[in-house]
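User: I'm writing a tutorial on reading structure tokens. Could you give me a worked example: one chain, its sequence, then its tokens, then a sentence or two explaining what the tokens reveal?
Assistant: Sure. Here is the example chain.
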Amino acid sequence: MPVSASAVQSLRARTGVSILACKEALEETGGDEEKAIELLRKRGIAQAAKKAAREQSEGLVFVEESANKAAVVLLRCETDFVARDENFQAVGKEIAKTLLDNGEEAAKAVADKKIPELVQKLGENITLGEMGLIDSPTLGTYLHSNSKIAVVIGLEGGTKDMARDIAMHAAAMNPLYAQPDEVSAASIEKEKEIWREQLKKEGKPEAMFDKIMIGKEKKFREENSLVTQQFVKDNTKTVGKFLGDAKLLRYSRLAVG
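And here are its predicted structure tokens:
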């Protein structure tokens, strides 16, 4: 019987095996997910299926760069011990290199093939996390020494060293957005609820709430946006001032945890 893409994705999320294997198992079991998992176990992918629900709080970020393009990939696992395994690292590097050279679909195909094999070999739940492919006229990357945080900055103008300095800043300060106007309305509304409660406890008159929250919103947007944060290498200026005439085009930050 034909199976839906959502059913295939659900089974894949629970088992970590390839999309094709999930599709075949569902077709053979009439779309019954539990029976499909049992079938996959019988086919020698039992370990992946058993471990799929376990939390992956560890892993590494992999970066590959060429000319004005960079690929970043987060590969998740359960323990730092497995993250340091050479087989785990080889697969992470292969996925990142494939992403750089051949794009997202090719990278996902490598992951679909290699990750179940890793699960069998290393005995942990391992999954592909976020990944990104970034290209810009001027590109700077930073991978922290523990390989758990990676940042890619793309600029129009400026220099590679400038872009790397900003990437190092973002690794340390973790801005959630590139620009203040990118902060979501939902985030602001959530903060406003907190601010209202704080103002009530402080005994501020309700008539002043809206005026006070204008300032709080401005500060919140600036503190959580890359270009308006105080630059860590020179706190007399913001990242935006450090950029000068250069323009921030791309900002990507991946981190374990």
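What the tokens reveal: The two ends are 39 Å apart (CA to CA). The longest helix spans residues 33-51.
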